[in-house]
Structures are given as structure tokens and as C-alpha cells.
Amino acid sequence: MIHSMDDRRAVSVTITGRVQGVWYRGWTVEQARARQLDGWVRNRADGSVEALFAGHGPDVDAMLDACWQGPPKAIVINVKVAEATDPGLTGFEQRPSL
């Protein structure tokens, strides 16, 4: 389904808990691409995972819900969400750790 740019939403997300070393980033790339989202994901030095999701509003919301679950070995404590600037049609990638 093709959506207009008007119904897009972009959010910056920080996921905390046991989210590094449990394939969280790879899982996030798969999940975001399956939802045709744009953005990126990376590990942070403080042990959290940071991501930017942009796309059709309901698809972004579904991704945020999925982030609370994560891959099987993850233990998610919190998903902090802030509205963000839409990066445009970039695809979704895993970025180097910060």
C-alpha cells in the first residue's frame, strides 16, 4: 500500500534493559524493514539501543509496540519515545555503535 508523505511520523527511541548482545539491533532492522520504515538503529556506550523510526503512523506505532518485546533473549525495561524530524525515504540501516 502506498501512503502519502502527509501521514508519516518520525520518532527517536531509546530502549533500555538487556538489549545489547541479544541480537536486538539485527531484530530491529528486520522488523523495521518488514514495516517499510525508514531510519536506523545503533548501540550506545551506556548499554542502551537507540533508533529512529519514520513511516506511516500506524506502522511506526506497531514498531514501538514490538520494541517492548524485542528478540527472545532481550529483557526490555523501558522504551523512551520522542517525536523527531523525518529523515525522508532512506531505507532502514544498522549504524555503528556510539
UniProtKB/TrEMBL annotation:
Domain Acylphosphatase-like intervals: 10-96
Molecular functions per Gene Ontology: acylphosphatase activity
Residues annotated as catalytic: 25, 43
One Pfam family, short name: Acylphosphatase
Enzyme Commission number(s): 3.6.1.7
Domain of life the protein comes from: Bacteria
Leading EC class: hydrolase
Reactions that this protein is recorded to catalyse: an acyl phosphate + H2O = a carboxylate + phosphate + H(+)
Alphabetically ordered keywords of this record: Hydrolase
Protein name, per record: acylphosphatase
Species of the source: Niveispirillum lacus
